[in-house]
Amino acid sequence: MEARLDYFASPTASKVVKHVMAAGKALKASPLPEETQELVALRVSQINGCAFCIDMHTKDAAEAGESAVRLNLVAAWREATVFTEAERAALELAEEGTRIADAAGGVSDEVWRRAAKHYDEEQLTALVIMVSFMNTVNRLNVITQQPAGSYQPGQFG
């Protein structure tokens, strides 16, 4: 598979992608736990069918020490016993935040309360931005059919 666009060859795309990548780096430095960030990134990417991001976040999480069992169970987190209550709350918020059109009301008050029980305001802010960020990059990659499989952990710094 070949990508429809080469973001690094386009002057417009390279200007925008530079800022998108900077936002991703800022999120990495946020107080939201790294494990939670990777689980949320992976789940949002699974929902959106972004193979490039699934490849990247699976490999980055594994490189950071995440277990294969947990990575394999992200798609079925509701039935899995390997996630903390905080991670489950983050994954639920990520799903509702990603499926806005399906949820009719966006993220429900109940889901928000569960997340707020486990994360402080700064972590919640990072979580909301992470969900939004992942939806943005997923769409950039899916629309242009960015191929997956060759990502190397840490490739983008």
TrEMBL record:
The keyword Coiled coil does not apply. Keywords: Oxidoreductase, Peroxidase. InterPro entries: AhpD-like, AhpD_core, CMD-like. Gene3D superfamilies: AhpD-like (1.20.1290.10). It comes from the Bacteria. Residues 18-96 form the Carboxymuconolactone decarboxylase-like domain. GO terms for molecular function: peroxiredoxin activity. The keyword Oxidoreductase applies. PANTHER family: 4-CARBOXYMUCONOLACTONE DECARBOXYLASE FAMILY PROTEIN (AFU_ORTHOLOGUE AFUA_6G11590) (PTHR34846), BLL7811 PROTEIN (PTHR34846:SF7). This is AhpD family alkylhydroperoxidase.
